[in-house]
What we know:
Elements: E1 2-5, H1 16-21, E2 26-27, E3 31-32, E4 40-44, E5 47-48, E6 66-72, E7 86-92, E8 101-108, E9 128-139, H2 141-144, E10 145-157, E11 166-181, E12 184-199, H3 220-227, E13 234-252, E14 255-271, E15 281-282, E16 285-300, E17 303-323, H4 328-332, H5 336-341, E18 352-359, E19 362-374, E20 377-389, E21 399-400, H6 407-425
Parallel strand pairs: 4-7
Antiparallel strand pairs: 1-6, 2-3, 4-5, 6-7, 8-9, 9-10, 10-11, 11-12, 12-13, 13-14, 14-16, 15-17, 16-17, 17-18, 17-19, 18-21, 19-20
Amino acid sequence: MCSSDLNLENLPIATIEDAVRLQAGVEPNMTIRGGNINSTSFIVDGINLREGRTNGPITGLSYTAVEQKQVQTSGFDAAYGNVRSGLVQIITKDPPKDHFSADLFIRNRSGQRLNFPGKWKPINDAGHDIDLTIGGPLSQRFGNLRFLTSYRNNIIPYLEQFGEDLRQDETFQFKLISNIKPDLKLTLSGLFTNQKGTADSISTVMEAGIPAYPWGFENDFFRTEGLFKNASIGLSDINHSMFAGKLSRTLNASTFYEMKMHYLRSDYFLRPNIDNIIKDRDTSSVSIISGRFDITKQINSSTQLKAGFEYIYSNYDISSEFNDAVDTRVMAIGSISNLLFGENIDYESPYRLHESWTATPQQGAAYIQGKFTFNQMVMKLGADRKSTRLNSSHALISYAVFCLKKKKKKKQTKHKKKKKRKKMMY
């Protein structure tokens, strides 16, 4: 199933995420067919924007720079690998050759008071959205060189203010296009995003505003220990930097090919606030280098063939620490520690997990597919081949600290129970 919007300017929305949520079958947090956001591929101008740390898409793009979007929930092409739930394709605007253009979007949110039961503070500043895109010609030389640049700033307050009061998303992106020859086109692009806010887990920033499913807000314990988890909340900064190049060439009226390369780096900085230093920490960095080649041949009006291959090189430098007494009970069940110590584990004790390792896995993929049309019916057949080489990490330090219960206490309690039974018998 595939759906698209040709004109996004008439929609009363301000973000890419809002545009995707309007599609049938898409739930909040870009949940498609029951899968979470990490199961959805997010492709922008043919580049897969997926961070290596969580395998999640990078969606903080400028909304005024988007020309068209397409959401696909099934029937994925063989050309797109690593897709389980959904595929979101974004096409950004091409800058004009002979004039300048600008799109500006500003929205201020007024203060509001929540109607949920419980002790909630009023929100006086509900945040704002600023989105600007400017494009136009740079030079008649160099193949009519033209540019498109965008800036986006999105601020939303947190309902319960632990750590940061606001979540801030800032994005800068650019695109340069040059028609080197009539049949040869070069596109250079870049993307820089920064997320600042509160984190309840490693390598993420919590969503701000009113949650999509606000059940349980009347319960203060759920709000502090379940929804916002005071025990592990920290301050988080996440930066993504991407550079990409695409070369498109038309060989003849029925054949063309594309070569793409991109470099994506993600840096994570999770630290505790002053109030509570026993919290998660993350200073990891992940970079991805990808190269791809695709060729398309239109055999006749009803048959099209497409083939290609891709190579991905990743560099993981992971350093994180996880502390949470609440999750100790969940993570310890079924673990090796539980098998070794059994009932002697004190599940209420603090839990610590530290990871420090590096790895450079390599991935390769090749595909071939055909598109056939018969009397207004379209059929796609394809096959792909994937391979992965996992280079062993240079250093791996992973440990968990559990507090063990003293067996003497159990013996004393059993002895006391025996005495009580004897008294009852007499």
